[in-house]
Amino acid sequence: MNLKQMYVSVLMFGVGGLLLFMYLQAWIDEQYAESEENLKQQISNQDIKFYYTEEPKRAPKMLITSQKLDRSHAVLTETVSSQANANPFLEIATSLTPELSEEQQKIKLLLKQFKQVNLSPVMRPLNKSLIKDDHWKAIDEVQEKRRAFLYNFCKKYIKERRPLIHLMRMVSRIYVEDKHKLLYCEVPKAGCSNWKRVLLVLNGLAKSTYNITHDTVHYGRHLKKLDSYDLKGIHMRLKTYTKVIFVRDPMERLVSAFRDKFEHPNSYYHPVFGKSIIKKYRHNADGEALTTGSGVQFKEFIQYLLDSHRPIGMDIHWEQISKLCHPCIINYDFIGKFETLEEDANYFLRLIGAPEDLTFPNFKDRHSTEERTNSEVVRQYLAEIPATERQLTYDFYSLDYLMFNYSAPYVEP
Ligand SMILES: *[C@@H]1O[C@H](CO)[C@@H](O)[C@H](O)[C@H]1NC(C)=O
Ligand SMILES: *[C@@H]1O[C@H](CO)[C@@H](O)[C@H](O)[C@H]1NC(C)=O
Ligand SMILES: *[C@@H]1O[C@H](CO)[C@@H](O)[C@H](O)[C@H]1NC(C)=O
């Protein structure tokens, strides 16, 4: 083989690998979308038993198993499966690589452990050895109920927990605090700014939660996300760290996001989301609204949210919690609620042995004079939209309602 031929074949391998990777990625995304749809369907039919139980369609084996594989291919398949963490790929990778290098063996073992340890429903007991008095008794009882509730929900309805979503995406909203061994899954509009302040202090990156500005919290690059670690680092942390999530009533969270992003000047949400929303859903929109994207109405926002052909994608501020944090796969140890934010958070800080003078901050740093989004405010917003759309909005967040035992909003018809 001369140099040119070699060059060409290396190039072909590269291109082939890329195409294969893109193909598999698309396949995973499709599977994920399908299973989400399935679950919704089954919940609305009150027959939720079969979520994730169907055998996922096999990845067409011939794509990978064309006979003339060499080491570079083997490495490629391993890479694909380690990133995807989907079982069918693991099987394929195994079937075609008789002699794995030590490194590949390790990856394979990790993937296996991942499958066994993190993806079976487990409810680890909370370690309460640092709690010495009865002060937190009532809050602890509520916490244990919530944990059991979520555990039972996931066990009952999600029989086989195959990770049909890209692992890296699954952990991409989780912040890491290595000193106290914490994983915090960020749910926007549920106290996340103050949580990030607390994490900065726990980490030793700030002295107090009080002097950290909103921009430092959200745009400073101090806190690490779980997806910035390698597979081994992710696995170790998921297995041994205390995993915490704070949730909020879905409709309150939605209305709060709408008010924050569309009722105040915003140099991102107005031009990006506002413009597309007004263009599609407002008839006879005037030129100014079309150029600035300001002044989106709640009912227009809901039309966008429920549209199966949204002119612009979703956003973390109104994405379902079930999709942001995957509560049935990650096995969170502590489930806080925005409705009882301070007491839950302070109990949690005592559980993990945070410094005694560190308490959860109670300030609201943006639009601080405005009334907080509470159930009365939500009722007013929901009254603006037709009953059918209210129901569809509720359906849209049905998993979040069910997993965290929130009750459906009541609005007079
Ligand atoms: C519980 O936490 C304490 C204090 O952090 C620690 O010493 C102990 O080993 C932990 N127990 C378990 C079972 O993890
Ligand atoms: C916050 O900053 C102000 C001014 O920079 C300072 O006077 C104050 O002591 C700081 N507060 C804390 C709690 O560090
Ligand atoms: C679920 O919510 C209902 C109504 O708010 C409440 O009565 C019940 O105790 C909750 N269940 C659990 C397990 O928290």
TrEMBL record:
Assign the protein's first listed, main location to one coarse class: Golgi
Residues spanning the membrane: 7-28
Q: Which UniProt keywords apply?
A: Carbohydrate metabolism, Glycoprotein, Golgi apparatus, Membrane, Signal-anchor, Transferase, Transmembrane, Transmembrane helix
Record has Transmembrane as a keyword: yes
Q: Which Pfam families match?
A: Sulfotransfer_2
> EC class of this enzyme?
transferase
According to the record, the signal peptide region is: none
UniProt-annotated location(s): Golgi apparatus membrane
Q: Topology versus the membrane, per the UniProt entry?
A: Single-pass type II membrane protein
Tell me its EC number(s), please. 2.8.2.-
Keyword Cytoplasm, does the record have it? Answer: no
Which family is it part of? Belongs to the sulfotransferase 2 family.
Could you tell me what this protein is called?
A: Carbohydrate sulfotransferase
- UniProt lineage: Eukaryota, Metazoa, Chordata, Craniata, Vertebrata
UniProt lists the gene as CHST9
